Amino acid sequence: MIVGVPKEIKAQENRVAMVPSGVGQLVKRGIEVVVESNAGAGADYSDAEYQAKGARIVAKHTDVFDQANLIVKVKEPQPSEIELLTRDHTLFTYLHLAADKILTQTLVESGATAIAYETVGLGNRLPLLEPMSEVAGRMSALVGAYFLAKHEGGRGTLLGGVPGVLPGRVVVIGGGTCGVNAAKVARGIGAETIILEIDHERMRFLDDTLDCQTMYSSEAALMELLPRTDLLIGAVLVPGAKAPKLVTREMLREMKAGTVVVDIAVDQGGCVETTRPTTHENPVFVEEGVIHYCVANMPGAYARTSTQALANVTLPYVQLLALEDVGGACAIRPELIGGINCQKGKLTCREVAGAHDMEYHGPEL
What we know:
The protein is α/β, with parallel strands linked by helices. The protein is 33% helix and 16% strand. An eight-stranded mixed sheet has the order 3-2-1-4-5-6-14-15, with helices on both faces. A seven-stranded mixed sheet has the order 9-8-7-10-11-13-12, covered by helices on one side.
């Protein structure tokens, strides 16, 4: 199987699916790798670096899809890319289909086998989502702190405070990978930090390991906290499914004007009712007096770090899929089965089917 690495064409997406060293490992195993020219430029990787590791550089985006069977990407395929996919392709990337019915329908209709990074589950972990959750979580506290500045329309609160002045308050909804990393950075810059969680064992773990407060997540808890919250971070994840709307517009009105919401769950539809996707070019909007940061590809802002972190965890799976067919790869790494979202014109992810009221079929291995 030939592995193809196209340049990402989503707006302001600078990550690339593979780094040159990873390409070199595949080539040593006898796997041919095709890389689109300038695919790695946004992450500061040159064509010459890929060529030095044995990649074949092609000039056009369409050439990658024409010549490769296994397409390895970062973000979901854009409409022009779905037109290039056939039943002979296996697509390996982030998909987040539960938030987009049109994308789901057109991807199913392409007949391609589409494996989503975010639904590959290993026990209670999502190993291919974790690195980007770590980046987005850490970013959320930083961008939230920035947009609290008065010149950016914020309330003018310095999260860390100063001697004699109380620090700002950060409330994180969700104590998973995103939430933990958001809390680490928020606490590291001196903010009062509270994590809302529903799993009691998880709360005990967070209480023991992080210098922050925990609180059982409920509407009543949010209503109590929101009037005195400077930065609200939505870090809720239901694997493969749409994020639950935990913060309504009415609840948002409890926050003071100039405070900030960062909804990391925007890829899955967002956990705040007023969320809508934004871009790095225009990252914020204001609803009910509250600044919303809802960039759908947050880690793309730190493209080189994010590319390296993603490539570290995806490479073993890429190699396996290139050496075996999908069924063979799933026999060796069963966690890949949960990653199969579409196959041979059928929707094979139960959570996505439920989100869009579409027919579900079990994957064929």
